[in-house]
Amino acid sequence: MELLELARAAALAAGRLQREYFNRPFEVRHKGEIDLVTEVDLKSEALIVALLKSSGIPVLGEEMAKTEPKGRYWLVDPLDGTTNYAHRFPWFAPSIALMEDREPVLGVIYHVMLDELFWAEKGSGAYLNNQKIRVSQVKELKDAVLATGFPYGVHEQPDKVVGAFRDFLIKAQGVRRAGAAALDLAYVACGRFDGFWEPLLKPWDTAAGILLVKEAGGQVTNYRGEAYDPFQNHILASNGLIHQELVTIAQHYVP
């Protein structure tokens, strides 16, 4: 099975498991004060890893060892949006990226409850359920709908997070905070959101999504407007047309 089809199959299999458990009792525990992990995260990761290992390529997942490998490897978030899932809020996704060092070259994100499979390969465009997608054509921040998220430690040092949120809120047409960065990025790629910012994410949160945005014609940088890779801790993604306006605000709130 080629690598794209393998990644798609793994995401779909994890999605089926997540739908199966969605309205059933399952175990939830704390990794941090407000950072959750459920038994469905762990079952999903085990399922994805078992499938991806057939490729012979190493797998790095959210619930596995947190080391950065070299060369080619899979980067997996088995269930992005765990807090949503634990509360039965239907905004969550498995996210799978194939990496070459720090660069994603293949990405798959599956919006489980809407049965929307987003995928991209470097140089081949971005797709939603086999239909090619493009970023939006909104040209000014005042007409844009943005997405963001808050880090788990926001209650400890809220000033920069709240400050950025305030500034974007008063400049944009609207801001949404749904709780799964992978889906936020997929929605930028398909033009449902015009831009996205978030601090202190992990590499498995953004790897697949940044490839989707780039292949859909968008732009991804850090808060300073510099080149971004998933191992940095602040991200801006947009349709490209409003990107400089985002940088103008975000550069004041580098975590």
From TrEMBL:
This protein's name: Inositol-1-monophosphatase
Organism: Thermodesulfatator atlanticus
CDD domains per the UniProt record, alphabetical: IMPase
EC number: 3.1.3.25
InterPro entries cross-referenced by the UniProt entry: IMPase (IPR033942), Inositol_monoP_metal-BS (IPR020583), Inositol_monophosphatase-like (IPR000760), Inositol_monophosphatase_CS (IPR020550), Inositol_monophosphatase_SuhB (IPR022337)
Entry annotated with the keyword rRNA processing: no
Root EC class: hydrolase
Cofactors: Mg(2+)
Biological processes, Gene Ontology terms: inositol metabolic process; phosphatidylinositol phosphate biosynthetic process; signal transduction
Gene3D superfamilies in alphabetical order: 3.40.190.80, Fructose-1,6-Bisphosphatase, subunit A, domain 1 (3.30.540.10)
Family of this protein: Belongs to the inositol monophosphatase superfamily.
PROSITE patterns: IMP_1 (PS00629), IMP_2 (PS00630)
Annotated positions binding Mg(2+): 62, 77, 79-80, 205
MF (Gene Ontology): inositol monophosphate 1-phosphatase activity; metal ion binding
Keywords: Hydrolase, Magnesium, Metal-binding
Recorded catalytic activity of this chain's protein: a myo-inositol phosphate + H2O = myo-inositol + phosphate
